[in-house]
Amino acid sequence: MSESITQSRPDVADTPLRVEGLTKRFGGITAVDGASFEVEQGTLTGLIGPNGAGKSTTFNLITGMLSPDAGRVVFDGEDITGLEPYQIANRGLVRTFQIARELGEMTVLENMMLAPKHQRGEHLWRSVLPGARGGVVEQEEELLERVWEALEFFEIEHLAEEYAGNLSGGQRKLLEMARALLTDPDMLLLDEPFAGVNPTLEQRLLDHIHELRDQGYTFLLVEHDMDLIMNNCRHVIVMHQGQILTEGTPEEIKANEEVIEAYLGGDV
Ligand SMILES: Nc1ncnc2c1ncn2[C@@H]1O[C@H](COP(=O)(O)OP(=O)(O)OP(=O)(O)O)[C@@H](O)[C@H]1O
């Protein structure tokens, strides 16, 4: 990607995300039970745990899709608990979303052009184009430029005119990441970004993620493929029954008896 998308990372705290005592109940089930953890800036951190451990609910609490019953989420030094998802995204904490079915009937380019609505990037551009006549046109041109940069970065520019619905699972994931990046995030939450992705595209997506991490982006990744987590994340957080069981380096996690126990099969 050209530098204009990646070079202007705003200063963020060394620990951009801090989750404190996060709790969420659904009736009698405590899906997330006093979870506390931190994510360091510029890292690819893995969040793992067996089915039903509370990973998705934690993501939903962090991104404002759900409100916690207790605890708080601090992003870039600010308490963002209870904010609406768009307010959290505007602060630079963004989650990738699957391309909705109706967007499958639009081309890749159209999907990209829709992506940054109401996002920070647009505000930034607006601030450098102060109400000049023709400003809307300039904004569109600037947007188009950024869209092409993102498509090129993810090597899907040749698919620009293709309907999103015709993309393979892996190509769709690349488009989802490209769309998320256009919103000018500091941190990306990835919920199983490699599901249904063939090994070649998976490696490409991983390479892009590592490249972006090297440029200062921060990633929190939920993924069931243990080898992928262990080979790519410097820090791994393990959830079990709504709680943080342990965290550490892949080597520490692999050697942890409690983790092996939690997975029952011991396939870590
Ligand atoms: N909306 C909901 N209503 C009721 N129970 C829910 C709801 N969402 C999640 N749960 C329950 O909360 C617990 C945690 O679910 P969650 O989806 O967060 O786990 P997970 O770690 O993401 O699981 P998986 O790896 O299978 O996706 C589970 O017992 C689940 O059944």
UniProtKB/TrEMBL annotation:
Cellular component annotations (GO), alphabetically ordered: plasma membrane
This protein's record includes keyword RNA-binding: no
A Pfam family this chain is assigned to: BCA_ABC_TP_C
CDD domains in UniProt: ABC_Mj1267_LivG_branched
Alphabetized GO MF terms: ATP binding; ATP hydrolysis activity
Keyword annotations of the record: Amino-acid transport, ATP-binding, Nucleotide-binding, Transport
Coiled coil: none
Biological-process GO terms, alphabetical: amino acid transport
InterPro entries: AAA+_ATPase, ABC_AA/LPS_Transport, ABC_transporter-like_ATP-bd, ABC_transporter-like_CS, BCA_ABC_TP_C, P-loop_NTPase
Family listed: Belongs to the ABC transporter superfamily.
UniProt protein name: Probable branched-chain amino acid transport ATP-binding protein LivG
Source organism of this protein record: Haloplanus aerogenes
